Known about the structure:
Number of helices of chain A: 14
Oligomer: heterodimer
Structural class of chain B: alpha/beta
Number of strands of chain B: 14
Strand order of the largest sheet of chain B: 6-7-8-3-9-10
Shape of chain A: globular
Helix content of chain B: 25-40%
Distance between the termini of chain A: 64 Å
Radius of gyration of chain B: 22 Å
Helix content of chain A: 40-55%
Strand content of chain B: 25-35%
Number of strands of chain A: 14
Number of helices of chain B: 11
Largest sheet of chain A: 7 strands, antiparallel
Order of helices and strands of chain A: HHHHHHHHHHHEEEEEHEEEEEEHHEEE
Strand content of chain A: 25-35%
Amino acid sequence: MKQVATIFRKDFERLWPLWLIVLAFTGFHLFGVTQLGANTSIIIAGPLSLFWLVASLSDVLLPVALVVTLAFLIQEEPLVGSNAFWLTRPYSRKALVVEKVLFIAVFAFLPMLVHDLIATGWFGVGGSALLFILKDLELAGLLICAAAFAVLTAGFGRFTLLVLVSAVAFGLLVLTTNMPDARNWGVLSGVSGLLAWSVAAIGATIVALNQYRTRRVVISAIIGAISLTLAALVLSYFPWNLAWTFKQWFGIPAASLDQVQLIPTPDASDAILDRDSASSDQTLPFRTILYPFRVAGLPNDVSLDLFRGRTELKSASASPPLVLGTHAFFRNHQPLPHGGSGGAPDKQLVTIGMLPRLDFERLSNSKVTLAGSAYFEAYRDLKQVRVPLPDREIPILIDRERCRMLASQVPDRNFEKKLFIHLNCVELEPPSGILMAASLVDKDETPIWWHSTGVSESSPAASYSLPSLLSPVHQSSITFEFGRQPSDAPSIPEGTKVIISARKPIGLLRRDFLIEDVRLKDLEGMSWKQRGTANYPAAMTH
Amino acid sequence: MNAAILTSGLSRRFGRSEAVHDLNLAVPVGSIFGFIGPNGAGKTTTIKLLMNILEPSNGTAEVLTVPSRSLGPDDFRRIGYVSENQELPGWMTVNRFLRYCRSFYPNWDEELEVRLLRRFNLPGQRRLKNLSRGMRMKAALISSIAYRPKLLILDEPFSGLDPLVRDELIEAILELAAETEWTVFVSSHDLSELESVVSHVGYIEQGRLQFSEELTSVQARFREVEITGPAEMPVSWPTGWLRPATSGAVTRFVVSTFAEERTPEQIESFFPDCRAWEARPMSLRAIFTSMASADGRERTAL
């Protein structure tokens, strides 16, 4: 213990400037978490722009400072090379490891704990000890990976080089072995991200301990390389499958999921179908293949997004089958609460895919079979929040998220006035991932039809990026931008209200379909009438 | 023999080259052992193997009866090590450095530390990185002997130091040797200084140990022989006679196996027509030089 204290004191005397930098960035990070509004670009224009810029960059700077401090800490007694000063002194390796862990605990984890307590307290979201432990484990994962690089190198330059080379190799491995579908989930998303992170962290722990025990660099490097490769392969091959499986296990209740059916509806009529007239433009080189489906068994508060699909279009005159990507938005049966265009009937045209005009004309008089799979993401609609358009920052609560709302009118680069509604929301980790939409109504509840290009989703980057790693508070900044104001309209009508509605992803769903005897028909404008016979076989799988 | 250092078949390869080959070395307890050899001979590698800084490719080494690979904190409390290129924590002041080292050794002799500080005239408040090379070596030496180790290993400690500093270090080692029961293992190029210090000497070249014995024994068996008069070089050259060179009527060579009862007779039989001959004792430096310039066949004969 005396030796631990001795080395600890030495390391503190050596590394206190770096620690001060870590503390500063922790402070900046805390400031960023608690103070930065949704639209940092507006705030950065203020007089303290540099301060705020650093605060917003602290998401990256803080982990970098931690990693740099750790690298210097470990390389005070380098395990590579022949630094005789410490190798021939009566250092106990166990004391050394304990000291390094203790140092990191005191100078990295302790400030982070204070940071977390203040951050959760600031937003009033509270925080359990378990949550903090989980956050600490995440931070420990980052630091142990950095430690593995530090124990394999003799100097900071080599450490940096090894980190960069490994990062590039890791990225290339992930990209070159990745399944096309996997990219839909982002590199570090969901379960596969955690699994890959765990594999890397366990490998890094073995590397670090092996180095402290034996100093056999080659063996340690091989273990490290294997761990990184495994982690990359986990990311490459399993994002889709694992995330899919886990979301199915823990997502939408099984009973609801089982009841949901995707049913082709060849008897659909014009009245219930909303169709883009451009799809039948004769001059286009492609034809859009559409088919009406309805979804049965969907709970009232659940909607489905058909976000991905694959359809084979088979015909005697088309061999091999033409493969088309299916996509459509299958909205909830219920109209959206604010009366926007999202309200959809229970029968909807699904875009089966784009077909070159020549193929379309060739197949027009043939019997065609459509077979494929549709992948849905299910959402549960949450309560909406209505508040007067705020003239100052106001707090609102949406599901688990505590938000501060701010509205601002600023000219864009074309000096056209735009209305921005900013939401700076926080919730405890893990994020619920709710998606938001905003709309404006006047005092008579009539929608104000400003063109809205509102960014209605929490930033995916914020969900899984480093700020999430370093804070128990998941923060999402959302900006809804309401586009150009009609020149004859008043700037903002008196009594305008903002309606924020939210929906929450609750699971994934796959449905296969097979439709026989389809005849492709070029249709015009908004008219729709199913031609031919669609036979929806009883043996269709769900 | 009680050995402070004992190696058996110790070898170390770096890729294709073998830095140390089949080294069998015994350093007696209480000796001051000079480990000499030309640059690149394998001295530093051997020392690093002894100190477990490097792992042997083959063979074993024992230091104070402990296998080198198993040397632990308790063992290092009995071993002092100073090397020519030792990296010291340059950001520390001399006082801080010694205070830091002190905490690792329960048997640290503060009185000795103070005495050595005074003797070496080291500025306690100055950072190590701001000291001259000689000063740093002195600080390293204090940190390695203030706990009175049983074994002190010095790797080229005098290299690059001015004569004054060199003398100071040697005097300090000798003085401490007189009052401490220890073994000193020192590798050095400064053979003239080493000669006045060491009791034993080992010579290594190209990773191979050529000989290892008491200095007096080495000095007794190495002689520089000078033959005067018409002397024809013999066709067969005796084993252990090195570097024959003729200049006019004088022929010189080194006898590495000199024995009063045998060698004069041998000389006269090999050079029957010589007018006179003389066998002069050699300094360690001269022995080293003759060994270093001997060819492979001659060295093998040793």
